[in-house]
């Protein structure tokens, strides 16, 4: 059955729910969550994150509709997605998203926009196929993109970190790793919150996250990665030792103002793919939850 506008809207709402679910996941080390309704610790108001996420729904739906028209990941489609994304950013700013919210959802627009478009291009595809389609889209240059460098691109140039664009051009390896971690934790009896925290920590443990690099350089990134690995090695969020290690890491990152926002965005991408129909979920091969 051909994809319809209602399916485009459904994909958009799935993307929005993934963003909100990621924002509400608690306790996220160094990141805004349900403890931050007044933005006391992280400088990000969770309510603003919810509102700005909802404001992106028309943009995501437009991306899905744009992908349906050519039916393949062309350069023209990539440029149209970029134009839609820039309009969606403007709408989000008008909806009340502040500077930090804007930076977080800028990355989310890139990650989820590509995945929404891939899902619209190939309904029912397996995760590996969807991320491969997203990679094809990301490989095209966007001639309409602003020429000014972003904070992420500057950090990537300085430290050689792949950033969100590098993740997309590699077919989102950390999104796939997060999905594998979700599956592993659920199978071991973890609650959904614990499984999602383990998925986030799995991303944090190996991602060259440009957020900590921008905030405090390589030592901050090493602390994020080492801390996340320590929680997982202690048994993850579902164990007493792992929960204690998670609380200690959270307190440390918050005290130092280190926020692994890139990891949070990639978790949102994983939650989006996880919420698609079962036929589009990852095949059980090749992605360790802790690697």
Notes on the protein architecture:
With 291 residues, the protein is mainly α. It has one domain. The chain contains 14 helices and no strands. It has helices spanning 5-24, 46-55, 57-68, 75-94, 99-121, 127-138, 151-159, 163-169, 173-187, 192-206, 210-216, 218-233, 240-256, 261-275. Helix 3 packs antiparallel against helix 4 (75-94) and helix 7 (151-159) packs across helix 11. The longest helix is centred in the middle third of the chain and has 23 residues, at 99-121. The radius of gyration is 18 Å and the shape is globular. This is triphosphoribosyl-dephospho-CoA synthase. Keywords: ATP-binding, Nucleotide-binding, Transferase. InterPro entries: CitG (IPR002736). GO terms for molecular function: ATP binding; triphosphoribosyl-dephospho-CoA synthase activity. It catalyses: 3'-dephospho-CoA + ATP = 2'-(5''-triphospho-alpha-D-ribosyl)-3'-dephospho-CoA + adenine.
Provide the fold topology.
Blueprint: H1 5-24, H2 46-55, H3 57-68, H4 75-94, H5 99-121, H6 127-138, H7 151-159, H8 163-169, H9 173-187, H10 192-206, H11 210-216, H12 218-233, H13 240-256, H14 261-275
Helix pairs in contact: 1-2, 1-3, 1-5, 1-14, 2-4, 3-4, 3-5, 4-5, 5-6, 5-14, 7-11, 9-10, 9-14, 10-12, 10-14, 11-12, 12-13
Concise account of the structure shown:
The protein is an all-alpha fold.
Global structural class? mainly alpha
End-to-end distance, in Å?
A: 39 Å
Helix fraction bin:
55-70%
Write down the secondary-structure element order.
HHHHHHHHHHHHHH
Integer average pLDDT: 87
The helix count comes to: 14
- The shape is globular
Count of individual domains = 1
Pick out the low-confidence regions.
279-291
The portion of residues forming beta strands comes to under 5%
> The biggest beta sheet, please?
none
Number of strands: 0
Cα radius of gyration in angstroms: 18 Å
């Amino acid at each position: 059955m051909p994809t319809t506008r209602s399916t485009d809207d459904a994909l958009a709402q799935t993307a929005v729910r993934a963003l909100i679910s990621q924002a509400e996941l608690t306790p996220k080390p160094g990141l805004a969550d349900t403890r931050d309704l007044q933005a006391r610790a992280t400088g990000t108001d969770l309510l603003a994150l919810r509102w700005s996420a909802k404001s992106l729904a028309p943009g995501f739906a437009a991306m899905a509709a744009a992908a349906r028209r050519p039916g393949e990941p062309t350069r023209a489609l990539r440029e149209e997605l970029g134009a839609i994304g820039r309009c969606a950013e403007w709408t989000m700013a008008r909806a009340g998203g502040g500077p930090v919210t804007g930076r977080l959802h800028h990355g989310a627009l890139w990650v989820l926009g590509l995945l929404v478009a891939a899902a619209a291009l190939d309904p029912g595809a397996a995760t590996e196929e969807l991320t491969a389609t997203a990679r094809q889209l990301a490989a095209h240059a966007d001639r309409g993109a602003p020429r000014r460098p972003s904070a992420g691109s500057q950090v990537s140039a300085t430290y050689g970190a792949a950033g969100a664009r590098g993740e997309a051009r590699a077919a989102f390896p950390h999104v796939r790793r997060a999905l594998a971690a979700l599956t592993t934790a659920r199978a071991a009896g973890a609650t959904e919150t614990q499984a999602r925290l383990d998925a986030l920590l799995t991303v944090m443990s190996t991602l060259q996250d440009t957020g900590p690099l921008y905030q405090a350089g390589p030592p901050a990134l090493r602390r994020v990665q080492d801390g996340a690995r320590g929680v997982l090695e202690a048994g993850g969020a579902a164990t007493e030792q792992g929960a204690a290690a998670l609380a200690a890491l959270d307190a440390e990152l918050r005290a130092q103002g280190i926020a692994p926002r890139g990891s949070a965005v990639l978790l949102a991408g994983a939650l989006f793919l996880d919420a698609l129909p079962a036929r589009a979920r990852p095949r059980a091969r090749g992605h360790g939850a802790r690697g």
